[in-house]
Amino acid sequence: MNENVINQGLYYLDWLLDHKAEFTLLVQKKCDAQTAEQVDWPGARLLCIAGEFTKFDEHAVKQINRNIELISLPAYGNELLLLELVKMLRVVKLRIAAEKNRKPM
After folding, report:
1. pLDDT at 85
2. Cα first-last separation, the chain
3. Are 44 and 67 in contact (CB under 8 A)?
4. Long-range contacts of the stretch 11-14 (C-beta < 8 A, 24+)
5. Distance CA 67, CA 89 (A)
6. Closest CA to 71 of 53, 98, 92, 97
7. Which segments of the chain does DSSP mark as H helices, in order?
């Protein structure tokens, strides 16, 4: 079991979100400017892949306000792998400020 895969993934996600400009420049350099503009920063998500996750891991991701997917990767013999979605959490951010500015009819 990979005990720190969620913590490590959150660290890298935070780093990426704190370094958007550097990432955007890298995408422009490796791809093009149009592709760099299409990066969906509010929709950024974390995919954690490990041999297995505990019920505590599943509970922990519910407490984190991020888009997170837990994917287990059990091996069946030497020739077969299965990707299994264990938990998917999507965070929807509401635009409350826009609602406050709207005038009633």
Report:
1. 86
2. 57
3. yes
4. 13/44, 13/46, 13/66
5. 5
6. 53
7. 5-18, 20-30, 33-37, 55-62, 96-101
As to burial, measured by CB atoms within 10 angstroms (0-12 exposed, 13-18 middle, 19+ buried), residue 46 is buried
Which helix (H) or strand (E) segment holds residue 46: the answer is strand 45-50
Tokens read off for 18 = 């704190």
Strand partners, 89: 68
Sequence-separated (6 or more) residues with CB below 8 Å from residue 56: none
pLDDT digits (tens, 9 = 90+) for 57-100: 989 888 888 889 999 887 777 878 778 888 877 766 555 555 55
**What pLDDT, in 10s, does the model give residues 1-31?**
566 899 999 999 999 999 999 999 999 999 9
Q: What is the pTM of this model?
A: 0.70
